[in-house]
Amino acid sequence: MNGVSTAMLVAAASVRDGRERGEPSAQAQLARACLERCGAGGRGLLRLVDHALGRSCLSALEALALPGLRGHYAWRKRRIAQWADRACADAAAQAVLIGAGYDGLGYGLAQRHPRLRVFELDRADTVAVKREALRSVRAHAPRLRLLATDLQRDEALGELFADPGFDPVRPTLCVAEGLLMYLPPARAQRLLGELARRLPPCSVLLATAMELRRGRARFRRERPWVRAWLRRRGEPFRWGCERDAIGAWLGACGWTLHALAEPEDSDDPDPSPGEWLFMAERATSPPR
Fold first, then answer.
1. Which residue in 91, 140, 144, 216 is deepest, having the highest Cβ count within 10 Å?
2. Rg (CA), the chain
């Protein structure tokens, strides 16, 4: 798995899900185009996904590393898409996807909501791959802006608020999917705090955070060697939160917890629990 990042694994899961449905969605097509431009690691994942033996190998590797992970990704994306569409239908005039990776959520939102402006923030190399992938699939997305930034730095949101197309007084949907766990706790708090300070009421946050188990951020079914692999990849889980502490933590960041996706939901359970998915609204009084 050398040269493979977690963002690439998520993209490969989207490609595989689209293949199994027999009718790849625009999101799956975009994920494939991104992987084709991710070097040997991305092309290797596509070769595995495109052949029966390769898919069997990926399933075996998942069972050895984190059973149910692909299903978890699908569960997470399904819930986020539902909440995001609701927020855009209700009030949001623009959407900000922080650490968007190779996901097609932003493109899909722009297609489904004709007046919505969408801004995606990620590292320069990821943005370059995504931009080329969008061109290759001939995705017409004039209201989708890709902005390069370093999310580890305090001024990471500067590119967004300096963009002439972004209006900080309009209700905004913010999405931080699979991001906060990779940031140091103080950095994650400052990031959400800055959003709360600079965005108006009626703004909505959709985000995920790792569950804390025995004092460590991890999935419940995660095998011991996964932690070492993430560290070698430079993507260790740096932060997690206990369920009962999510509301207070969000409150300190200037957000009010509105909904938490239940991993044990009998109608739609999470196949691999360990990552909280929540919706929050900008608090009446943002943090100082």
1. 144
2. 18
SS3 250: helix
Q: Cα–Cα distance between 80 and 240 in angstroms, integer?
A: 19
State the distance between the two ends of the chain, measured CA to CA, in whole angstroms. 44
What helix, strand, coil percent values describe the chain, rounded to 5?
Answer: 50, 15, 35
Specify the pLDDT at position 51. 96
Give the model confidence (pLDDT) of 142-199 as tens digits.
Answer: 999 999 999 999 899 999 999 999 999 999 999 999 999 999 999 999 999 999 999 9
- What is the tens place of the pLDDT at every residue in 16-27? 998 888 777 888
d(CA 199, CA 181): 23
**Extents of the domains making up the chain:** 6-69, 70-282
**Is CATH 3.40.50.150 what the domain over 70-282 is classified as, yes or no?**
yes
**How many of the other CB atoms lie within 10 Å of CB of 154?**
12
Q: How far apart are CA 233 and CA 238, in angstroms?
A: 13
Q: Per residue in 88-120, pLDDT tens? A: 999 999 999 999 999 999 999 999 999 999 999
Evaluate whether 65 touches 145 at the Cβ level (below 8 Å).
Answer: no
Name the pLDDT band for 288 (thresholds 50, 70, 90): low
Query: How many CA atoms does the CB half-sphere of 53 hold within 13 Å?
Result: 0
Apex 69 CA angle, 66 and 75, nearest 5: 155
- pLDDT grade for 9, boundaries at 50, 70 and 90: very high
- Positive or negative, the CA dihedral 135, 4, 24, 54 is positive
Give start and end residues of each alpha helix (H) in 66-145: 69-90, 105-112, 124-136
Contacts of 268 (CB under 8 A, 6+ apart): 75, 78, 79
